[in-house]
Structure formats: structure tokens, C-alpha cells
Amino acid sequence: MTSYTTSGSTKGGREGRAVLDNGGLALAMAFPKELGGDGAGHNPEQLFALGYSACYGQAIVALGRKHGLDGGAAKITCAVTLTKDDISFALSVELKVHIPGADLEKVKALVEEAHQICPYSRATRNNVPVTLTVV
């Protein structure tokens, strides 16, 4: 079995600073304007969107040939929504996949299969609503 572990630390929560423990990335964090912040930094939802789109994109690349498609040409857009209700906050996700010039039915089949193997998709399954959209 092969594995990979990475770690990061934050201080100050959503109004603080986030740093990868290897020093490779450091970001100022801030509440989005839509939630009453100044928006002068990044937020966890943005980082989740980037991570999920890259991870899901790799699943598309890995399975593309099986479906007769060039997975490397796919553009994956991950929209993460943070919603507040009376009790707490909740996340939802939409993954939009576009492969220029590809047959939409083939792309739909690829998108569904990639959703089964992507680690982010597996981690969110039955916990975070994820919508798959072919564009």
C-alpha cells in the first residue's frame, strides 16, 4: 500500500493565516463579503473547490481513455456553496465538466464513473450534496 500525508496549520481561524507545514504555501484567510467579512483573503471553501476540482480532474484523466475521451482536455469547475441555516453551516458542491468536442453521452458516463473513484467524492458521499453537470 502506498500513501501520502500532508499537513497544514492555521492560526486565527477564518480571519487568520493558513500555512502548509512544509512552507510551500501560506495564505491570509478572511470571511467572504457575502458572510459579513471583508473578503481580503482566502477561505476554506475556495481551497476545497481547488482541491476537489484537481482530484476529480485526475479521476477524469485516469478513466478518459477507457471511455474513448481525452481526459487531459477536460476542464473541471468545482463550485462550493456554504449555506447557513438556523443551526449551523452546510456545504454543497457542483462539479461541472467540459471536454471540448466530446460526445456528451460518453462524457456523462465518464463523469459518473470518476465520481465513484475520486477520493473527494468518496469522502463527501452521503454527507455533502454533489451535483454532476456536463457542459
TrEMBL record:
Database matches in Pfam families: OsmC
InterPro entries, per the entry: KH_dom-like_a/b, OHR, OsmC/Ohr_fam, OsmC/Ohrsf
Organism domain of life: Bacteria
UniProt cross-references to NCBIfam families, sorted A to Z: organ_hyd_perox
Family affiliation: Belongs to the OsmC/Ohr family.
Protein name: Organic hydroperoxide resistance protein
Organism: Labrys miyagiensis
